[in-house]
Design a protein that fits this description.
316 residues, alpha/beta, Rossmann fold, UDP-galactose 4-epimerase, domain 1, 2 domains, 6-stranded parallel beta sheet
């Protein structure tokens, strides 16, 4: 059996930190190489190898893959929805070229697997709002969504044409206490916890009734690893799997937080991110992932809020 050596690109980001730590528990610290353009995240220091790496420099990336005997790549580097709207060309170039670089190297070096995340941002105003299905009308309204949808087709193409075992999930909004969010439209659902604990108030950049699909980071990390460890014959989707656990509005999460912090107050001042949120589905149908490889979520809104606040209290 081949001994896996994993490279995580974008390891200092919101998903990367926790995914790297989880992979090191499974495969051993020395067998998971963390990389990023940014400084190494404090939570990763001392837990395993770290290299400074620019995924846009294909030659440099290729050298690292060969030098480190890499067999799997998790590509997490991306410019997210809200940040991407401020610089569309940069978002398109980074999100697209980084994926093409990784897929090309995976084909040349015959890597065993590649993971690349997509997003609910692929859906647009014409997609169904409730229980948006795996296959539906997809007309993304942001450059981030456009790049993710194009990326899904590249993943499928490299699998069909070259046999690259590339796997992907369409993440909903992700909520985490370990690392900061990266400029997405769902970031309010992380910020609100910090503000609730420190200021006892929060001004939300989305309207009170804006429902969006969300997921607590432990579920997202587990889903990613379960997908990657599933046998090839269980994977029927090579574009990207819908993934879901809960949907809520800012008003609903505020109500839940008030159960723990009664004096907490929320106000609303929607900005440009409201238009992005309004273009996305309110809930996702992920029955294909559940049927194919047995996906099951663990956290709902009350359980997630309790765990988030408990861990933020420990960090204080």
């Amino acid at each position: 059996m081949i001994k896996e050596k994993i490279l995580v690109i974008g390891a200092s980001g919101q998903i990367g930190v926790e995914l790297t730590l989880a992979l090191r528990k499974i495969y051993g610290n020395a067998n998971v190489v963390a990389s990023d353009l940014r400084e190494e995240n404090d939570l990763l220091k001392g837990s395993g190898p770290y290299v400074s790496l620019d995924v846009m420099n294909k030659e440099m990336l290729h050298v690292q893959v060969i030098r480190q005997n890499i067999t799997q790549i998790y590509l997490l580097a991306a410019i997210l929805s809200a940040t991407g709207e401020k610089n569309p060309n940069l978002a398109w170039n980074l999100n697209m070229q980084s994926l093409l670089n990784v897929l090309d190297i995976a084909r040349e070096e015959k890597l065993t697997k590649v993971y690349w995340p997509s997003s609910i941002a692929v859906f647009g105003p014409s997609s169904p709002k409730k229980l948006c299905p795996q296959q539906t009308i997809i007309e993304p309204a942001t450059v981030y969504g456009i790049s993710k949808y194009a990326g899904e087709f590249w993943c499928n193409y490299f699998h069909q044409r070259y046999g690259v075992d590339v796997r992907s999930l369409r993440y909903p909004g992700l909520i985490s206490y370990k690392s900061a969010p990266g400029g997405g439209t769902t970031d309010y659902a992380v910020e609100i916890f910090y503000e609730a604990m420190e200021e006892k108030k929060y001004e939300c950049f989305l309207g009170a009734g804006t429902y969006l699909p969300m997921m607590y980071m432990p579920d997202a990390i587990r889903a990613t690893i379960e997908l990657m460890e599933a046998p090839q014959d269980r994977i029927s989707v090579r574009h990207s799997y819908n993934l879901s656990s809960m949907s809520f509005s800012p008003a609903e999460i505020a109500t839940e937080i008030k159960k723990h912090i009664p004096e907490f107050e929320i106000s609303y001042k929607p900005d440009y991110r409201q238009t992005i949120a309004d273009s996305w589905p309110q809930s996702i149908d992920d029955s294909v992932a559940r049927n194919d490889w047995g996906w099951k979520h663990e956290y709902d809104l009350p359980k997630m809020c309790g765990d988030m606040l408990k861990n933020l209290e420990i960090q204080k």
